[in-house]
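Subject: sequence -> structure tokens, single chain

Hey, anyone have a minute? Need the predicted structure for the following. Not urgent.
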Amino acid sequence: MLNQSIDSAKSKMEQTISFVKSEIGKIRTGRANTEMFNNILVNYYDNETPLNQVANIAALDAITISIQPFDKTVIDDIEKAILESDLGFNPSNNGNSIMITFPPLSAERRQELVKVASKIIEDGRISVRNIRREIIQSAKRIEDEQNISEDNMKTFLDNIQEVTDSFITRLNALQKEKEVEILDK
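Reply:
Had a minute. Here:
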């Protein structure tokens, strides 16, 4: 029963890591990153459709993204969706494709982005710790109901702490990686 709790905690913590990766992937670093466009929705025949399902998105070089629609009639809708997104890009439409150039970031803006990334990572750490707390509370209820020995409970608590520490370590590594990416000129 307690092992199932640990498996459940790992699964929830893995979802937290995935969410954090998704969120910090949206942070603009001054380097072309196609993942930033994954959450943009385009009005495609009166349906909100993810941009990556209506166009090919490719990084041409370190500062340029090319968006090639599969259907040329939707190019204006793609351009409008990019302009309305909170990414702050000014797309250039040549009729066949859309080009986006990443302007260089100022040192001040880089520091702001590091703070945003740190906040996202800290929220991830809090989520992982909350998962640990919920699993421990659940295990203590089970302990009371099923007379689980102190030794088994101690082993469980050590195991859940070990799992938690491994996920916190992964989040810390993500933070360092993102900071290097943001501050690298």
